[in-house]
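Internal QA ticket QA-208
Title: Verify multi-chain structure generation after dependency bump
Assignee: T.L.

Test input:
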Amino acid sequence: MSEPKAAKRLTHLEALEAESIHVIREVAATFDHPVMLYSLGKDSAVMLHLARKAFYPGRLPFPLLHVDTTWKFQDMYAYRDRIAADPDIDLIVHINKEGVAQNVNPFSHGSAVHTDIMKTQALKQALSEHAFDAAFGGARRDEERSRAKERVFSFRDRQHRWDPKNQRPELWNIYNGRVHSGESIRVFPLSNWTELDVWQYIDLEDIEVIPLYLAAERPVVERDGLMVMVDDDRMPLEPGETPEMKRIRFRTLGCYPLTGAVESDATTLPEIIREMLLARSSERQGRAIDKDASASMEQKKQQGYF
Amino acid sequence: MFHADFDAGDFDIGEYLEQHRNKELLRFITCGSVDDGKSTLIGRLLFDTKQVFEDQLAAVGKDSRKYGTTGEAPDLALLVDGLQAEREQGITIDVAYRYFTTEKRKFIIADTPGHEQYTRNMVTGASTADLAIVLIDARHGLQVQTRRHSYLVHMLGIRHVVVAINKMDAVDYDREVFERIRDEYASFANQLGIEDFSCVPVCALNGANVTRDADEMDWYDGPGVLDLLESSPVHEHDLERPMRFPVQYVNRTRSDFRGFCGTLVSGRVAPGDVVVALPSGRRSKVAEIIEYGGAMGSARAGQSITLTLADEIDISRGDVLVHADRLPRVSELFDARVVWMNDRPLLPGRQYNLKLASSEVPATPEAIHHRIDVNTLEHHPAEQLELNEIGYCRIRASRALAFDAYDSSPATGSFILVDRVSNLTVGAGMIVRPVTDQLTDKSSNVTWHAQTVNKRARAQQKAQKSAVLWFTGLSGAGKSTVANALEKALFQRGHHSYLLDGDNVRHGLNRDLGFSDDDRVENIRRIGEVARLMADAGLVVLTAFISPFRADRAMVRELMEDGEFVEIHVDAPLDVCETRDPKGLYAKARAGVIRNFTGIDSPYEPPEDPEIIVDTSKMSVDECVEELLAYLKRRGILIG
Ligand SMILES: Nc1nc2c(ncn2[C@@H]2O[C@H](COP(=O)(O)OP(=O)(O)O)[C@@H](O)[C@H]2O)c(=O)[nH]1
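Actual output:
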């Protein structure tokens, strides 16, 4: 038996990677019909990379699902098309057609209604339509206080609801994925990663991310305390508003009218990380939807918002 | 503090990233009773290591005025208390995970609350922890809870304990108070067998000996809490332990490729190693260890890997690959400590799904050797395990499994129990030893040997005792209705029953019988014999026949074991039955169309001393069922 000399213990990133791959394979082994929710953001990018590693040299044994609100940044669509071109990946795009028919959009309906119809309801539609029994999400526990309690395997009832008071105990690395038909499990392989870990891993593994994370000159307007990028001509400008070119980047990516930019000179990953370490506000602050109440996220999740 | 230079903004990001990249991960749990200062301690660690952003602090400031206990100062404990519901009640209800990092390590805290649900939550949090912080309020000293927390920490195999003696400010930083508590804890730890522990006098509120040296306590020159977190060894033995590779997933997504994927939970493995797959016992050699984009020279504990074998042998999820010279145990029978986590108690004889590493099999706790009182550590006899109780149990899996004792290999010695109906995780187990009885003397022999299968064993498997519930009463009294409703209730509770009535007996078994007196006797005799066989099969048998004659019912009672026959008189006055007349039989009998009709021109002999009477003219069907269920539980026919 060979005795490799001085094998070191795992670093924290190696340990996190191993844990996530374990979780991803467990789902592939125990569910009939899993899917990976793919938001195109940096966390999704890491999750997809881990999935590729988990099944190398094979192809992904489950599809990706992108719930498209139709209001994402153009850069995000371009990126999505590149990912979808990979023969090892099946990508499902779901749009809430009723929402489109009613012309639901963030400008006339406001962020809450738009997000509910085009994201929350759309996601539920897609999950029910395809009868997925497990759905991977890229959420991390360090993102927000209510997430800190969520399990890696998080049970959802037939209405896709989360009950924070009634979660299954989760011990060791043994996950309970048993569900009755119609019920499902949300699986969070990145639960134990922090924002710093995600960025560093992207850097180390050379994972492609959307260029919007890096600073560049982009047209923006100030609105309700957010710096909003004028990404296409669907954005109605209010009287007196003229887009200004600023050096900006995004810390999180969602629907462009709802996502606040930050002014920045960070054009490389280490510079992003440096800015993040110096930052004085947490990452979710850039999202219009989180501003209502400090526990709003928890309410949204109970309703099925991812 | 290290992060201080972030404020100045001048640090070398390249250097920082290089350092961060090589950090180890330490997971720890904090234990303490309500108000010992757990949340404050965690808040302090997060705050002083700069994990708290301004917007979060602002939110906490707002919340402090609403829910806090520290007046105007931001209550750091609120950084930690996550969910709205619990914040409103002022308690934490579950396990929450927190993250922070220092220049030496990255940390994951499992934060568990201190109220009654504690055992369940603490065991959950402790299951993944490398270290435990046990909090003691200096004003109160060692409490019953301290004992409980320490016992659980020890049981879960956590080898390093930091005892934080908190609120030293409230005892004037008195050295004697600290030393008295420290000595008391030392003798207690010794009793439990906790070898590595350090006591630290702290003030979580101001950070003394948590994240900074404490001038207030210059008499203490040992390490602070954070120093201990940064220096305590992690996973020190995993590499020396025997190789264990539970096969999690077989990768055959390309037709020419068969890779075995999983987490190498202990030891090392390299190409060329001879491995044995258990429980099957098949052997092969490791061909390659695949890495993304290439192959690895060797793999070590903790890595999630894919390996290929030199031979085409049949291996699937649930098998464990090991080195031939350091085998685990293989058995379907073992003794384990089980922590119960559900409102419905653990019942010996009931079947659960057991998940151990990557195997999932039906399994039955056959017996509870004893229950362990976590406060006194005494052993007590127990018939069942309630929520938060810990029992030492004998478990029988439906097939042989490869495993180790939890103490020597947690990853292959731990399991969960899942309720087969609700799918909830109801128990957590730690294997102590395999059991070898006469029939399974060779634990490496994987053929399945059952224990003696008899009536008791069959019934016990279904959490019940065999019984014949004999419903008797007039036509239209409600025998079938009540019996059917009861059977439904039994089924929902996971019991196994069978209902014999006119419909399924008269058309088959007793097709040749009419309604003469002789035939009536024979009818009941046959039903009695069938009921007896079914009782022998371990079932709860329900019968719904008028069975008007005492002698016939006495004959059936004689066939059964003592206590097995339960005579249920479904009572309702004749006039009520006659008005109900569901099948129009009374009308026909009155008209003389049918003869020998019980109650009209043939007598009904009511039971003189039935086990139970239900009067359907006074009670609803549901009430009858409730009453019967209560009776059957009292009698021990239904367990649980
Ligand atoms: N005097 C003093 N009070 C403390 C200290 N640590 C915590 N407390 C107070 O003890 C109470 C309970 O603390 P908390 O952290 O919520 O306890 P938990 O229930 O264990 O999480 C709060 O009022 C804290 O302010 C300490 O070191 N000294």
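Spot checks passed. The helical segments of chain A are 12-30, 42-55, 74-84, 97-101, 106-130, 195-205, 269-278, 296-302.
Status: verified.
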